[in-house]
Amino acid sequence: MSHTTRVLKSEWTKVRSVHSTIWTLAAAVVVSIGLGALICAVTASTFDDMSTVSRRTFDATFTSFAGMSLGQLAMIAFGVLVVSAEYSTGMIRNSLAAVPQRGTFLWCKVLVAGPLVLVVGLITSFCTFFLGQALLGEHGVGIGDPGVLRAVVGGGLYMALIALFAVGITFVLRSPLLAFAILMPFFFLVSNILGSVEATKKVGQYLPDQAGTTVMSVVPEALDRPYGPWEGLLIMAAWTAAALIAGFIVLKKRDA
Amino acid sequence: MIELRDLTKRYGDKTAVDGLSFTVRPGTVTGFLGPNGAGKSTTMRMVLGLDAPTRGDVRIEGKRYGELKEPLNSIGALLEAKGVHGGRSAYNHLLCMAQSNGIPERRVGEVLEMVGLHDVARKRPKGFSLGMGQRLGIASALLGDPRILMFDEPVNGLDPEGIHWIRTLMQHLAREGRTVFVSSHLMSEMAQTAEHLIVIGQGKLLADTSMSQFIAENSRTHVRVRTPEPERLLDVLTTEGLRPAAGTRGALEVDGGDAARIGELAAAHRIVLHELSPQRASLEEAFMRLTAQSVEYHGHAPGGAQAPPEGAQVPPGAPQPPPEGPQAPPEGLQAPPGGAQAPPGIPQAPPPGTGQAPPPAGTQGPPPEGPAWGEDWQRRRRR
C-alpha cells in the first residue's frame, strides 16, 4: 500500500469517527432542503401577486436552491471543524508526528473531505431541486429543460467548493473560533451585501459565493452578472484553490 | 539513537534552545532534566520535526524526521499535551494513527491491552482521567513497536500507582534495548528511573553524564566543624591527611570526613568543639545548584537556604566545591527514603524550584546565612 493510500485511509478514519461530521453534513442537507421547500411553497402561493418583470425573470431552479444560502453555513462548519479540531485538541502534533510530509497530510485531508462534501452537496441539490419544483407546481421546470441539469449539478459543486474553501482558510487561521467568526458572518451577510449594493457590486460579484451561485441560475437576467454560469463556478474554484494553497504554505512554514 | 547537533531555536530575540548537542543511546533510560521553561518540550518538538530549528539538526537513527515514511515504527512519543480529539474513541484515535503508518489494526487492540485501556477502547477520551489520557498517549507511542521512545513529563499529575507503572514500563523498554528519552523537572523522579542524565537550563546543556557519576559527584558528604581554636584544629586535621576548608562563619568543612573520627581527634588534642555535624547535599540540591543560574522565575522560600555559590555550573567531571549552599537536614532527621525503589543514599528532598514550601519544621539545618534563595541571583541580574 502506498504512502498516500495509507494517509488517505487514516484521514477517512478521522472524518468518520467524530460526531461533528454527521451533524454538520446532516444540517447542510436538512436546512437546504427544508428552507428551499418553504420558499418554493410561499413563492407558488404568491406567484400571481408578483410584478410582471419579476414573473418574466422568475428562475424556478434558482428559487428551489434558496435554502442553500443557509445550508452552506453548515458546509462551512464542516470544513472548519475538519481542520480546526486538529489544532484545538492538539491532535495536530500526533498527526504530523505520524505523517511528517505536511503536503501529503493536507492534500489527503482535502481528498477525503472533498468527495464526501461533493456527494452530500449533490444529494442536497438534487433533492432540493425536485422537492422545490414539485411545490412550485405549474411554475416549476423540469430537469431536462435547457440549463437546468447544469444548475443542479453546479449546486452540488458549489456546496463542495464552499466547504473546501473553509478547509483552506482554517489551515491558515488554525483556531476554530477565529475561523467561525470570520467565515460565518462573511458568507451569511457581508458577501451578500457587497454583491448586491450598487456601489460595491463591481468587486463584490467576484467574491467566491457570489460568483459560485451563478452556476445555479438558469435565467441570466435574474442575477445579471458579467460572466456565465461555468465561469462563475471557475472563479469560485480559483478562490478555493487559493485558500488551500495559502493553507498549505502556512502549514509548511509554521511550527505545529 | 537520537543525535542532536547544535540544535537551536529562537523565538524573536528569545533563545529557547541554545546550541544543544548530545546523543541519546539505546539500552538505557536517559533522563532529560531541567527547570520549567528550560526548553525541554521545545527540544522534543524539534526532535519530532514539529518545530523547525533555527540552527542545527536532529537525526533519528541517522535520518532526519521528515525523511521517515513510517516514523511511528522508528520513534514513538508522548508529548506534554494529550493531543487527542475528545470525541474520537480511544480505539479510533489509535486506528487512524496506525493506518497512516501501515501498522496492522490488531496492534491497536494489543497496545490498548498493554496500557490497560481495553475496557474503555470504544469510549470517548473526553471523559478520561488524567491518568487514562496519559496511558492513551503511551499506547500511541507504543503503536509502531518503535526502537526509540520519547516521553515528555510522563508522570505529571499521575497517582502513585500510575507513576510506578510508567517507571517500570520505561525501565522494561530500556532493558529490551530500546532508546528511552524521558523529560522531567524533578530530580527525585529521574533518580529513580534514569541511568543517564542530560541536564539543561535556559536552553543550554549543563550536564551530560551517567546517573551514578552524577550521584557520586553531587551527593558528596562533608562534616561541618566549629571551634574557638580553628587554627589548631586545622593543623590537626591536615596532619591526619584530611582536607578541611573554610566554611561560613568561621566553620571548617571537611570534605568526605567522618564525624566520629574528627570528634576523636579533637578530643585527643583537647580542642573544644562547638559544632560537629555531618552534612549531605541531596541530589535535588545538586540539581538546584546546577540550574540555579538558569532558572527563569524564582520564588522566595521564607527561611530558605542560601543562594547558590558562583560557578555552580561546573562541567561534569570537574571537582565539585563542597556544598555550602542549602543546608541539608542532618542525618537522622531526614525523611525516610521513598520505599524500596529509592537507590540507597538518596535522600528524598522536597522538590526544588519555584514557590516551594520550606522543609517541615524540625528537619531544618542551622538558620540561613546571607541572602534568601534567589536574592543573590536577582542582584546579579540587576547588575
UniProtKB/TrEMBL annotation, chain A:
Pfam families: ABC2_membrane_4 (PF12730)
Coiled-coil stretches noted in the UniProt entry, renumbered to this chain: none
Keywords, ordered alphabetically: Membrane, Transmembrane, Transmembrane helix
Transmembrane segments: 21-44, 64-85, 106-131, 151-172, 177-197, 233-251
UniProt entry tagged with the keyword Phosphoprotein: no
Name assigned to this protein: ABC transporter permease
Taxon lineage: Bacteria, Bacillati, Actinomycetota, Actinomycetes, Kitasatosporales
TrEMBL record, chain B:
Biased amino acid composition, Pro residues: 316-329, 344-370
Family matches, as Gene3D superfamilies: P-loop containing nucleotide triphosphate hydrolases
Alphabetical list of Pfam families matching this protein: ABC_tran
Keyword Flavoprotein: no
UniProt keyword list: ATP-binding, Nucleotide-binding, Transport
Region listing for Disordered, in residue ranges: 298-383
GO MF annotations, alphabetized: ATP binding; ATP hydrolysis activity
InterPro entries hit by this protein: AAA+_ATPase (IPR003593), ABC_transporter-like_ATP-bd (IPR003439), P-loop_NTPase (IPR027417)
Domain ABC transporter: 2-227
Keyword set includes Transport: yes
Compositionally biased residues, Low complexity: 303-315, 330-343
Family the entry assigns: Belongs to the ABC transporter superfamily.
Protein name (Swiss-Prot/TrEMBL): ABC transporter ATP-binding protein
Provenance organism: Streptomyces diacarni
